[in-house]
Amino acid sequence: MVDTSIGANQHGLLAPPPVGTSALPDNTFANAVVFVTGGGTGLGKAIAAEFARLGASMVIASRKSEHLDAAREAMDELNAPIECVECDIRDADAISAAFDASEGRFGLPDVLINNAAANFPVPAEDMSPNAWRTVVDITLNGTFYCSREFGRRHIAAGTPGNIVNVGASYAWTGGPGFAHSAAAKAGVKNMVETLAVEWGPAGIAVNGLVPGLFPHEDMTDDITGSLDRTHDKDACQPAMRVGQRQELGWAATFLASPYARFISGHTLVVDGANWQRRSMTNPAVTTIRDQLGRPPFDPEGYDQI
Question: What is the CA radius of gyration of the chain?
Answer without folding.
Answer: 20
